[in-house]
Design brief:
By secondary structure, the chain is mainly alpha-helical. The protein has a domain of 36 residues. The longest helix is centred in the middle third of the chain and has 55 residues. The protein is elongated.
């Protein structure tokens, strides 16, 4: 009986998280292209930062 109760609790928790996930999904989908766009910029900036680091110390 205890096991079934735990399963019920976890499924209830899952159901309460569902609206949050459904709300967060468009945000994540919107943020993905931004991250993909920012990635080359970061990759380009990294060597520059690594080059500038000894100069700032």
């Amino acid at each position: 009986m205890g096991f079934r109760q735990r399963t019920l609790d976890s499924s209830l928790l899952l159901v309460s998280f569902l609206p949050l996930t459904a709300y967060r999904l468009p945000l994540t989908a919107y943020r993905l292209p931004l991250t993909a766009y920012r990635l080359p910029l970061t990759a380009y900036r990294l060597p520059l930062t690594a080059y500038r680091l000894p100069l700032t110390v």
